[in-house]
Design goal:
single chain; mainly alpha; two-stranded antiparallel sheet; 42% helix
């Protein structure tokens, strides 16, 4: 490695080997410093080409593929199910409670109008601000 020290008076170049201290200036090089390149630098990185495996490894494509696969397989699985198991499954689906989505507009209207839940209203009732 070559260490070049630039100062106001004159620049100095010294040869420093790996593992030695940078303050070692014993091996000075002649003033018109001529350096030759060791090799050609390549800054261009070629773009990767299209690969089908990269496309199929995409998580979105995996989810889509699973959904399409289930779309075709589930009806065939249901057709091969015995009648007793089919009836039991339909009863289980009928017995599950039907939850409705909360009305977002009504909830936001209550919130903006200052309407609070009874638990929150009773907690702050004892304290008054001035």
């Amino acid at each position: 490695m070559v260490k070049v020290t630039v100062s106001d008076k004159d620049p100095k170049a010294s040869l420093v080997s790996l593992g030695t201290d940078w303050s070692n200036n014993d091996n000075t090089l002649p003033s018109p410093l001529v350096l030759s390149p060791r090799g050609q630098s390549s800054y261009f990185v070629p773009r990767e080409g299209f690969k089908l495996s990269h496309l199929l490894a995409n998580p979105m494509m995996l989810m889509m593929g699973f959904s399409v696969l289930m779309l075709f397989i589930m009806p065939k699985l249901m057709a091969n199910m015995d009648p007793e198991a089919m009836q039991e499954m339909q009863e289980m689906q009928g017995s599950t409670p039907n939850f409705e989505m909360p009305d977002l507009a009504a909830t936001l209207a209550k919130f903006s109008a200052g309407g609070a839940s009874p638990a929150a209203g009773s907690a702050g009732a004892g304290k008054k601000r001035q």
